[in-house]
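Example record

The entry below shows one chain as it appears in the dataset: sequence first, then structure tokens.
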Amino acid sequence: MTGYGKATAELPDKKINVEIKSLNSKAMDLFTRIAPAYREKEIEIRNEISKVLERGKVDFSLWIEKKEGTEGATPINQALVEGYYKQIQNISKNLGIPVPTDWFQTLLRLPDVMTKTEIQELTEEEWKMVHAAVLEAINNLVEFRKQEGAALEKKFREKITNITHLLETVTPYEKERVERVKERITDALEKTLSVDYDKNRLEQELIYYIEKLDVNEEKQRLNNHLKYFISTMESGNGQGKKLGFIAQEMGREINTLGSKSNHAEMQKIVVQMKDELEQIKEQVLNVM
């Protein structure tokens, strides 16, 4: 299920930004980008995320923003500059090579003259603040997902209700369909073929034929699947795969209903049910 959460921690000299995003995925796939100062806490951060999120493609970022005025100037290694200066003068004297015309430009480009080495030790107090921001970002993501889940539940209920109503509209056409089948066969025998026939035998054949077209079992099973979908959805988290399986079973019954309908209006209803079900299948992938 998609989600997004962000939080910050304000420290005297910097601001810590925490961001976490998730997309739907069948398994847990966690990718982290953590500032070097906090990399030692990566396992702890991963554990915090795994406690809350069961699956999904999760992208976690933690970076530092330095506050204005706290960025110190990069120090120049004076001793090293002096050493380079003396070496260049000796080389110039020994090999007869002219000394540089711009000493500063030459010396400052040499290796390690300008290096900024920061050795940061993560204190317990600082980590406490950063850890709180991590938890806040995770909670914000969870809240985001809850809102999306509520919207999905509303959508599912709407689509299940639509299929239920469409299923009810099939009933009036069933009796009409039987009469049309009977008329079509008798007309073919009497008008097209112009032959005498045994009416009792015809009735028996019609009963057999109509039984083949009977959709009561499909209607009953589909109705049961619709109710089971709702009850499964209400039973709690971690039902995404199960809802997907139920949707597949619903599709089978709707397809059988369509193949047996043998009636234009019933087939139109089946197409509408398929459309509603397809929207369920698209969204059920976003359910945990």
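Notes for this example: The chain has nine helices and four strands. The longest helix spans residues 124-168.
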